[in-house]
Amino acid sequence: MKILHVCSYYITSKLYRNLVENLEDLGLYNEVYVPVHSDNLVDKYRGRESEKTEYIYSKCFNKIDRVNFKLKNKKIYSDLLKKVDLDKVDVVHAHSLFVNGYLAYKLKMEKNIDYVVAVRNTDVNTFFKKMIHLRKIGVDILKNAKKIIFISPRYQEFVIDTYIPADLKEDIRKKSTVLPNGIDEFWFENLYLEPRAMKKDDIKLIYVGKLDKNKNTSTIIKAVDILRDKGYGASLDVVGDGPEHSNLKKQAESSKSRDRIKFYGYMEKEDIINLYRKEDIFVMPSKYETFGLVYIEAITQGLPVVYTKNQGFDGYFDEGVVGYGVNYKDTEEISKTIIEMVDRKTWEFKDIEEGLKESFDWKKIATRYMDIYSAN
């Protein structure tokens, strides 16, 4: 079986590479079509060399085209028809609903090739939410898909309840499934689920991720000040880099907790794992989040997590099992939640080890995708 992956986001995350390589291991053939707007992006990131996978990078549109959805996709579709041998394709996997799904939808309408489509953060919080003129296209793509992949249960509920017409809800729900991304095998090879015993006078908080406005790290710094005011000895380690790095450092330097906040910059996972094992709670109240694999990575090291309500990670575990959801902009709620977690005294995750491996191991995820591709 040969899968055509339409994946304009391939260069942005290694999760796509992980999926394709695990599909290879199961015997599937893959063609990864990556449309880009600049020659500098061509062949920027590839998976391992394999006779089972071909990568087709193509500079087939420009930055200006991005403001015109139909013009941009017309150019990409015309290019795809020239570059891909569709006679050898069994199923198309569109790795986003609007940007990639529209191309898969066109292939279904004109070439009768079945497709599965993934719904991601940008689809929900940008296209459906803000681009009202494109909502009908989004619904049509979902309606004609063989299978719909939601990365989180909250996004599945929200999209179906909010944007799908009443007469289509049941059909869309039936062919939808929740299938998360996996984490690197490294984290399973180094599981550390020892109990966490917390102390009020020494609460070690950690954030790991990109430092941008969406990740909302500034709110964590404010919460640390609130915790200190309430008599809790909180500290914060910040790992990562990004456009907000200098602003966050200035905020930290002018805060009451400046002597308790440390910035590490970018770190490799081998160093992050050692830091995780010294911490108490992982905190990331992102505004928007398709899923947030870093939550799972932290959990594999026994860290309870503070995440955002109604975003990607919310709904995978019952509240209180691995942590709690918060309103991303409510510093009082975030600090109160951390206090509740500390007052609980001990967190232990050994009971969820099997579930972690079942849900977030790439080998098992790839097997589920293979079943989806093969289903009638």
Considering the chains and any ligands shown, give keywords for the structure.
Rossmann fold, seven-stranded parallel sheet, 376 residues, 15 helices, alpha/beta, globular, six-stranded parallel sheet
- Helix share of residues? 25-40%
Distance between the termini: 14 Å
Q: Note poorly predicted spans.
A: none
Strand tally = 15
CATH topology of the largest domain: Rossmann fold
**What class, by secondary structure content?**
alpha/beta
**CATH class type of the largest domain:** Alpha Beta
**Number of structural domains:** 2
Mean pLDDT: 93
Largest sheet: spatial strand order: 3-2-1-4-5-6-7
Instruction: Determine the CATH superfamily of the largest domain.
Output: Glycogen Phosphorylase B
Shape assignment: globular
Describe this structure in words.
The longest helix has 15 residues, at 69-83. The chain has 15 helices and 15 strands. The chain has 376 residues and is of the alpha/beta class. The chain is globular and about 65 Å long. The protein has 2 domains: 2-182 and 361-374, Rossmann fold, CATH 3.40.50.2000; 185-350, Rossmann fold, CATH 3.40.50.2000.
In short:
The chain is of the alpha/beta class. It contains 15 helices and 15 strands.
How are the elements arranged and paired?
Elements: E1 2-6, H1 15-25, E2 29-36, E3 53-59, H2 69-83, E4 91-94, H3 101-111, E5 115-119, H4 121-130, H5 135-144, E6 147-150, H6 153-163, H7 169-174, E7 176-178, H8 185-189, E8 196-197, E9 203-208, H9 217-229, E10 234-239, H10 245-253, E11 261-265, H11 269-276, E12 281-283, H12 293-299, E13 305-308, E14 323-326, H13 331-343, E15 346-347, H14 353-360, H15 362-374
Parallel strand pairs: 1-2, 1-4, 2-3, 4-5, 5-6, 6-7, 9-10, 9-12, 10-11, 12-13, 13-14
Antiparallel strand pairs: 8-15
